[in-house]
Design goal:
The chain has 303 residues and is α/β, with parallel strands linked by helices. It folds into two domains: 86 residues, Leucine Dehydrogenase, chain A, domain 1 (Rossmann fold, 3-Layer(aba) Sandwich); 132 residues, NAD(P)-binding Rossmann-like Domain (Rossmann fold). The protein contains ten helices and eleven strands. A six-stranded parallel beta sheet has the order 1-11-8-7-5-6. Strand 9 and strand 10 form a beta hairpin. Helix 6 crosses helix 10. The longest helix is centred in the first third of the chain and has 23 residues. The radius of gyration is 19 Å and the shape is globular. The structure holds NADPH dihydro-nicotinamide-adenine-dinucleotide phosphate and 5,10-Methenyltetrahydrofolate (GUE). The site of NADPH dihydro-nicotinamide-adenine-dinucleotide phosphate has 26 residues, from helix 10. NADPH dihydro-nicotinamide-adenine-dinucleotide phosphate binds next to helix 10. Keywords: Amino-acid biosynthesis, Histidine biosynthesis, Hydrolase, Methionine biosynthesis, Multifunctional enzyme, NADP, One-carbon metabolism, Oxidoreductase, Purine biosynthesis. Its EC number is 1.5.1.5, 3.5.4.9.
């Protein structure tokens, strides 16, 4: 019986974070400027509040300039757009992140299109999406969760992923599509699966690399995953956990983790896998955006 390697996202995120901290200090020594991040939250979704707090805290810990704008859930679209215009022209702000999802009365696409592509640290603006898909990712800002997932894969399998068979389950603009695009750019043979995919277990079984971004707790069973495969579980699902006490919850991924341990090669846990990488890649993107806006040469890519 083999024993799967646990991909320690928390530890890898900590090492990337140190590197970003060093680079931010260099930037400040050279220019007197700190990378500046603005996070905008509309409404009071508790999960979003947790993420936004964590982004703000990490930015502060790394010595970034960080501002948080919390707007009421009934904010008019025009007011949100006006705030983005202000941030677009603020020279101390290099990165803008609007926490998703937005309340239903606001046109998400309109908001994302207004953010200056140079400041779009989520990588959701059509210009950044286009650059990534055109094979120009070095000039883009790359979405944080897929980018962090790719780093986990490279730290586990080595820098060269070419020729590997990868299945991405999920086709959202936030995770699935950009993940597939990054893996294709690494010369993997990529399949994108979704809710209409037939024989999903068989599709997944053929993969060297499985990335799960579905949002359904433990939907992907251990027996669907081939021997020795590497599994990146992006899913974050909060389930009630009465065994931990009344009203308590616990997080699980999209993959049945325990069922994988005796035969997969490596797997990310939830929590402690992709989540911590997402936050640190947001800081990496903010630093990249700051250097570009200050006219400095690109830093080495982070692996
Ligand atoms: N760790 C992190 O940092 C982050 C984690 N997440 C988590 O990742 C997960 C996915 O997020 P996101 O991409 O935004 O989710 P979406 O809901 O936008 O997309 C889910 C995708 O899963 C597909 N899907 C749904 N049901 C099935 C099924 N039965 N079989 C196969 N595919 C299915 C959908 O297919 P179709 O298109 O056909 O409907 C869709 O493409 C969530 O748990 C989210 O919380 C998200 C962002 C960051
Ligand atoms: N514009 C925008 N950009 C995003 O990047 C974005 C977003 N909107 N909306 C929501 C999703 C979700 N997301 C996560 C970030 C960190 C963790 C994270 O740190 N997770 C910890 C656990 C956190 C906990 O305990 O709740 C972990 O997995 O170990 C998870 C999920 C970013 N998102």
């Amino acid at each position: 019986m083999t024993q799967a390697t646990l991909i320690d996202g928390k530890a890898i995120a900590a090492s990337v974070r140190e590197e970003i901290g060093r680079r931010a200090q260099e930037l400040q020594a050279a220019t007197g400027k700190r990378p500046g991040l603005a996070v905008v939250l509309v409404g009071e979704d508790p999960a979003s509040q947790v993420y936004v707090r964590s982004k703000d805290r990490t930015a502060n810990e790394l010595g970034f300039h960080s501002v948080k704008h919390t707007l009421p859930a009934d904010t008019a679209e025009a007011d949100l757009l006006a705030l983005i215009e202000t941030l677009n022209t603020d020279p101390d702000i290099h990165g803008i992140l609007v926490q998703l999802p937005l309340p239903g009365h606001i046109d998400e696409s309109k908001v994302l299109r207004l953010i200056r592509p140079e400041k779009d640290v989520d990588g959701f603006h059509p210009v950044n999406v286009g650059l990534l898909n055109a094979g120009e990712r070095d000039h883009a800002l790359v979405p944080c969760t897929p980018h962090g997932s790719l780093i986990l894969l490279k730290r586990t399998l080595g820098a060269d992923l070419s020729g590997k068979t990868a299945v991405v389950v999920g086709r959202s603009n936030i995770v699935g599509k950009p993940m597939a695009s990054l893996l294709l750019a690494e010369s993997c043979t990529v399949t994108i699966a979704h809710s209409r995919t037939r024989n999903l277990p068989d599709v997944i079984r053929a993969a060297d690399i499985v990335v799960a971004a579905v949002g359904r707790p433990e939907m992907i069973r251990g027996e669907w995953i081939g021997k020795g495969a590497t599994v990146i579980d992006v899913g974050i699902n909060r389930l009630p956990a009465p065994e931990l006490g009344e009203g308590k919850t616990r997080l699980v991924g999209d993959v049945a983790f325990d069922e994988c341990l005796d035969h997969v090669g490596a797997i990310t846990p939830v929590p402690g896998g992709v989540g911590p990488m997402t936050i640190v890649m947001l800081m990496a993107n903010t630093l990249t955006a700051a250097r570009r806006q200050l006219g400095l040469p690109e830093d080495k890519p982070i692996f």
